Model the fold of this input.
Amino acid sequence: QQQQQQPTIASTMSAPTASTAVSTATPTTIPVKYEFNGSLRRAAIDVPPRFNQLRTKLARSFPEYAALFKSKHQLLRLKYVDEEGDEITITTQEELEVAYQ
Done:
């Protein structure tokens, strides 16, 4: 019997920045990098970020684990390093929103 793995993803979110002073449009996506099982990937997610959208992106990036990422019964743990150098864990939509701010 195959042991079910609990997904832990290391990710990097970048706050949107305007490329010129003339542009006042609010960005609609932000770049993220995520790593799982030693494989680093890059994608764009909507602003504001949504946990379910991240689950879908992860499932597409790692199809052999798609059921694991899509399952609402499976805890998805995201980790990132904040501006102070602390490793922060995200497990809820609210924590994801705070991390983005």
The chain has three helices and five strands. The mean pLDDT is 82. The beta strands are 8-13, 29-36, 39-46, 77-81, 87-90.
